[in-house]
Predict the 3D structure of the following.
Amino acid sequence: MESSTLLAEQRISLPSDQDASGRTLGDEELDLLGQVIRSGTLTSTKGEFVRLLEKRFAEVLGVQHVYACASGTAAIHTAVAALDPNPGDEFVTTPITDMGALAPILYQGAIPVFADVDPRTFNVTAETIAPCLSDRTKGIIVTHLFGNPCDMRGIMELARAKNLPVIEDCAQAFMAEQGGQKMGAIGTIGCFSLQQGKHMTTGEGGLVCTSDPALARRMFLFINKAWGYGDPKPDHYFLAPNYRMSELQGAVGVAQLSKLKASVVNRVLAAARLTEHIGDLPGIETPYTYPKSMHTYWKYCLRVDSGTLPGGAVGLAQILAKKGISSAPRYIQKPAFMCEIFQRQRTFGSSRFPFTLARPETVDYNPDRFKGTFAALESALVLPLNERYTDQHVDYVAQSLRDAIRQLGA
């Protein structure tokens, strides 16, 4: 680590996924965008690139049907709507997630029911999901946080026993695997985000997939205002938005998909090097992954022991910031159920719908019910990572962590 010591003293700039320094965007995307512009066809209903992205992503994932849409939120909304919940139906999900994975449940008139998480992985488990199930449960939504797969074997055993569909939120888990299967292909429906900071990006955008033909039909229709494109006598069959992706995004997506495998390999190698360099440091735990799983590291999340390191994750982040390393203590500042949308039930006007249909126990957000969630967030320190990290960048982060921990007196 001698060279790393010099790096920490000299301060270097890390690649950022918010600009070209941390992204693989280049001539390939420009070439395909040029083809779209020259064609004059920017709508996916008439073009070819969105369909090509769907076809190739289905091949990569090993599923029968993939549909592109406007965002990761749109992907989750499409998945929820494909299951066609009745008002008051319930979806068991995680409280450590983006609101984009929760708002679609409410928009479909259903109730998010929060399960606690395993504080080692920040993910829900079969054991935390089971007590939340009821005769109103319409489905289970699991989030593979940071690219770290949930324990899908246990979750799928539970889901099959209860005859419940599972939606996988893979927004941060492109190419992650468990037991030889890719995340998104294990559950009933898989959802992906193509937002700026994801493993592959079109700026905004999403992908939703399934191997169930009936659900695939519902998903296709929902993205397209429920208009039956290609049907002998098409109609608008049910209430649905326009969630289509444009050909411009589709072209970028096709180019990005061709680089995805290499990007993931780079992330995994960078994370492995970082783990090797910091695994012996006091007061921190490197990411825990279930056996036979491959974590693909959207970000690299440490667990910080505030008992060993005064100031905990926040104190460590403050020192790292002085070295130009922008980390995120706690990841999100509070569990999703503590946001106003849930605490004050702010939805449609003053109606509070669909919370008016909720069972009282499903809107009981007593912290005692979520000890794993609060413990996970209290310990979390999310370090930046992307496919442009070199050994030099990793070593700089590692030595900076070592120096910061020393400063905190550990």
